[in-house]
What does this fold into?
Amino acid sequence: MLTYLFRKILSFAILFIFLIFLILLLQKSREGSAAIILGGQRSNAAEIQQLENLAGENLSGFAHFKSILIAMLHLDFGKSISGQPVPGAVFEAAQKTIALALFAGIFSLLYGVVPGVYGHYKTRFRKKLQNLNYFILATPIFIIGLLAMWIFSLFLKWFSPGGVDSAFWFVLPGLALGLKSGAQLYLFTDEFMAHELKKQYITTAIAYGYGRWKIISVYALKSMALPLLSFWLLELGSYLAGAAIVEMIFSIPGIGSLLLKALMRYDINLLIGVLVFVSVMIFIITLLHEFIDKIYAGYTGKTNEN
Amino acid sequence: MRVIPAKQMKISRKIFIIGSFFFVMLLLMTPGRPSIVPAIAYQKPYFKNIFDFNLSGNSPLGENMTSLMVWGYWQTLLAALLGRLFAVLLSLAGLAIAWTGRSAGHFWITRISEALMTIPSLLLALSLGYLIGEGFQVMILVIAVSEWAYNQKWMLGRLSEYKRYTYVEASLSMGAGRTHIFRKHFWPLAVRDLSFLFFIYFPGSLLTVTALEFLGVSSGSGVAGLGSIIALNKDLIFLYPHVIIPPVVLVVITVYIAVVIKNEVLRPLQEYTGSSGMAA
It folds into this structure.
């Protein structure tokens, strides 16, 4: 287990170095600079030069790459161009995104699993639910976010249209974020249930005279738990991407907004910090997913292909 | 001989008819390139006349909305299609390198695709879009690179299956070169698998393009994509609903058709032709 973990972390370290190299390469080839953004239109050449020194933009590509790697070995992620330490800025934003992702995750689980199971109990709703979820899957996340804002904030005035000042700021963006993955989870649950209900042990349970609800909720649902958890974990990773859009619509200062800010302001340290945070999160999620997959393989003797 | 199930045939025929009608209507409706119309035209009520191609009135800037929407639609669709095509071609090239480059080629292709997979494709596309700059080619490149990693990972899995085919093992034992095996045996299998991948991930590409446009990655062509039109007018929903509702409807209809084709036709077809993919 330790060897497996060590190999995975080593592999991630290689990927991590490659990632920083790629970001730096693209940033160096990009037009414009952080110094111009900081200095503004009225700054002279000397001031721009000074700001470039501060932002590390005067260094050559390789020297900059080396300096970033050495600093990171000492756990120094540097400062953003506004002077704030990068870890502080990232963790501050991450709190909002994690709160949002957790709410969205719980909502998607409820939205996906409950109708997915119910659709097999009352089969006449199944096709309608399926079509509804195809429709949700076909709707871009920003349209879901905008519709939620138009209906619940601007028309019904139930929630605040943006910001993190109100107590339930995460509800509307969380619903917008979780609805799409909830639809994915619904389709997964539906497909898995349909597959599971054809199995021999279910036929035996029916022959024993168990009720349909008991068969579905106790036997089929139990065998679905691990694959469902594994699928849900993979979906959690997609929240980090969706958060960029939802945070922009609802003006939430989370990881997505921070990434956009870093890109627009040529803030290389902040950009690396955000992308490293995202990749570490995805790495942890992938590790958990593989771990669950191994448990599932131990139970059934096959990998979780779903 | 394998026969496509009757249910799938029925659904695909229905989707083909609806989809064709939808695209022909859009083609017929494609008016001239959007431009600012004289101020007097701004006063025109929408749905005024079907023949002057001004079905949905003008935007707050005075542009013909139908023209803006249809041109934006073609641009978004083309970017997604070409991006997808390049992602698939990159995967084919990656497959060739992984096979002909022996273990070193396989190692590097795996590592690079895994590195790109540690960042969600939308965030990667967004970062690349801002870092490379604006342009239609950039949009295509961004889609291709951000989606390549997942395709490549899938294709590397398929490569290990191809290698186990008896006729491939026989060719190798008879001394056939790696390039020869790729050209004669892997190429047809990979093309079939990749054409399937092209369609199955197309809805995702379309959603990524619209999301990128919404987040400000511009194609730089002077024509706003559907995502940009929505982003520009999102605060005007109650004032000018005719400006924002048609692009929203167009995006949803197109992705819905693609999702239904993917789930109702392609997935069952994949299961029918073999659990490991089209090549079985």
Residues 38-51, 275-280 of chain B have pLDDT under 50 and may be disordered. The interface with chain A takes residues 111-112, 114-115, 117-123, 126-128, 130-133, 203, 207, 210-211, 214-216, 227, 230-231, 234, 237-238, 248, 251-252, 255-256, 258-260, 263 of chain B (CB under 8 Å).
